[in-house]
Specification:
Blueprint lengths: L50 E4 L6 H20 L4 E4 L3 E4 L12 E4 L7 H8 L5 E3 L8 E4 L17 H16 L8 E4 L13 H8 L6 H16 L6 E4 L4 H9 L11 H11 L7 E5 L2 H4 L2 H13 L5 E3 L1 H4 L2 H4 L4 H12 L4 E4 L4 H12 L7 E3 L34
Parallel strand pairs: 1-2, 1-7, 2-5, 6-7, 8-9, 8-11, 9-10, 11-12
Antiparallel strand pairs: 3-4
Helix pairs in contact: 1-4, 5-12
Length: 415
């Protein structure tokens, strides 16, 4: 193929060489990991041909951000290992049916990459750190390695939920397998698919945190979020409580799939939020900014009934949301995930935040607030998802509420 452009469509468009190598790489028996002072499992530095690592950040707003973070963490780790890395992606997504969760499949439209991240600023940030970011690359002469789990509906990377050191070693081994032989190839193309859960493991935050520092949001989305904050200040609410009310139809169905682990699958999910809001000291005089798809999916009468109940329970004074604070024409140009990103950026400034640990949106807000120096104790989850057993750092572990790129305590703030 002449050029690689990774796109994220309802069915992701993969490189035409799909299937060239789909076997999951394994760590050789007896091989050990060496921990470097930077917290990176690094073998001795090696030289080799150019390595193009392509990926497709997919799903909702926070899922896409986590996909970029994980891909950047991979690129940074392989760069520290002495490999000549270029990260390649050119896609973003928006939901067609954000409240219709049918057969566990949400439909998406392709959107410009710059609608979800400030790619140009990220390129400037990462270039002096030895990591190139591109939208496309000529990989027609490259050896191809495919690390995608095509059986998963989101086409995730095969090493989902693996410990970070083991995942990185497997990635390096895949590269090494592509460069061994009598003739060194001109380049290697390593396709990750959707890396949303590539580093979703308790051992991952030391590797993700440096990547988050090089993730930047689109200026137009940030400006809209700033306008929301200014509008609240103008109404006398410079300080506010945040509520991520994830009660859309798709999420209630998802909560049911958690097999009873989520209280949101009970008959009164709003009551679970009210219980948590009371525990977080929401009061009858509290200005509450609400982030929810309900404002675009439910009729005004249902929104009014929801507001009345929160007020009657003594956890709401003034309900605030972006559709109320900004003119419709101001929001008209944003797609669904940009609208969610506006909410996310506003929530970073909340005095106290109530969300759901199983939601990547809530988790991202929790973690990024910690990077801003806001204690994690100001975040309250409507549900707890205890693991059946503790996660070990040397084995695969599916922790539904992980999504952590800041340690529970200690230094995490942005420089």
């Amino acid at each position: 193929m002449a050029a690689l452009v990774v796109l994220a469509l309802p069915t992701l468009l993969w490189p035409s060489s799909r299937g060239a190598s789909t076997a999951t790489p394994t760590l050789a028996p007896g091989r050990t990991l060496r921990q470097s002072p930077e917290g990176d499992a690094s073998p001795p530095p090696t030289q080799g041909p150019p390595l193009f690592v392509s990926y497709a950040a997919a799903g909702g707003a926070a899922n896409q951000l986590y996909g970029h973070i994980n891909a950047l963490a991979v690129g940074l780790n392989l760069t520290r290992a002495g490999l000549n890395i270029t990260l390649v992606t050119n896609s973003a997504q928006s939901r067609k049916n954000s409240t219709l969760f049918r057969d566990a499949l949400t439909q998406y439209d392709q959107q410009p990459l710059d609608s979800m991240v400030d790619w140009a600023r990220m390129q400037v940030y990462w270039e002096p750190r030895g990591l190139r970011l591109q939208r496309a690359a000529n990989t027609s002469q490259c050896v191809y390695r495919d690390l995608v789990n095509y059986k998963h509906r989101m086409n995730i990377t095969q090493m989902d939920h693996y410990p970070a050191p083991l995942a990185f070693s497997m990635l390096r081994e895949a590269v090494e397998n592509g460069t061994t032989g009598p003739v060194t190839p001109p380049c290697v193309h390593l396709f990750l698919g959707n890396p949303i859960v590539l580093l979703n493991h308790p051992s991952s935050w030391p590797y993700q945190l440096p990547a988050v520092h090089g993730l930047f949001f689109p200026p137009d989305v940030q400006q809209a979020a700033d306008e929301v904050l200014s509008a609240m200040t103008g109404l006398g609410h410079p300080s506010f409580f945040g509520l991520h009310l994830r009660l859309e139809d798709d999420y209630i169905k998802y909560a049911g799939l958690l097999k009873g682990k989520s209280p949101l699958s009970k008959q009164d999910p709003l009551g679970e939020y009210i219980r948590t809001m009371k525990a977080a000291n929401f009061t009858q005089s509290a200005p509450v900014y609400v982030a929810s798809g309900l404002f675009i999916s439910k009729p005004p009468a249902e929104i009014k009934a929801l507001e009345d109940r929160l007020r009657a329970e003594g956890v709401l004074g003034t309900m605030l949301h972006k559709q109320q604070l900004l003119e419709p024409t101001r929001l008209a140009g944003f797609h669904t995930e940009q609208l969610a990103l506006i909410d996310l950026l506003v929530m970073l400034k909340a005095q106290v935040l109530v969300g759901d640990d199983a939601s990547s949106f809530s988790a991202f807000a929790r973690e990024y607030r910690a990077m801003q120096g806001i204690p994690k104790g100001t975040y309250f989850s409507v549900a707890e998802y205890p693991l059946p057993s503790p996660c070990r750092e040397d084995e695969k572990c599916e922790d539904i509420n992980q999504y952590s790129f800041c340690p529970p305590a200690g230094a995490c703030a942005l420089a």
